Amino acid sequence: MPPMRPATGHRTGNHRRFALLATVVRYSAARLAHWDIPEVLPLPAPAIFAGNHRSLFDIVVGFHLFWNYRASVRIVVAKRYFDHWLMGPLLRTAGFIPMEPGRAALGGVKASLAALDRGETVVLMPEGRVIPPEERPEGVGPPSAGIGILAARSDAPLGICAITGTDEVWPLGRRFPYLRLGRTRPTVRVLVEALEPLEARDRRDRDCVATAVMVALAERVSASEGPETPD
Is residue 127 within 8 Å of residue 142, measured between CB atoms? Predict the structure, then answer.
């Protein structure tokens, strides 16, 4: 099922800005990795997509994955990145939603719910931070409260984005991504699937939703990790 078109001037404006910036970002980053990502996403807007978080390069993946999604997309990232001299203006222009940790996260959740009510799609990383290898023995780390609250308060369908390879492009603690050439480039692979609908009672249970999302992500991340496929 193809993603639906934006239906209002508001969504069209954000959609165009996001698509323009995404075009620049994806072409700039095209040679940093081999790319194995789907061309068509399984859910139309409005939807909630949840992805695992291994690297700052995951933000580039967000642009690369949703650049031709024919509806407005709001990607949720940690508020501290909005203070960066270069990244901040880029995130604001692209319509990203800032999320603060702990109790202050309610503001980000409210902004995400408002976006869903407008018919926009929301993309977030439930772990809430970049997870180092030693903290993800099963492939993913524990979720923060955001995904459970968001899914429990919205009827939008849930999708998962299992991301691998980004930590080879831009490892945690490194200031800039690696620049490799030819076959030495790692493969960034993304598996995207719609999550099986939950029973109404389970959908309203924050912990149940968060567990279902992370179990599905762990399974798909495990399935995604394998031999590299050059682009």
Answer: yes
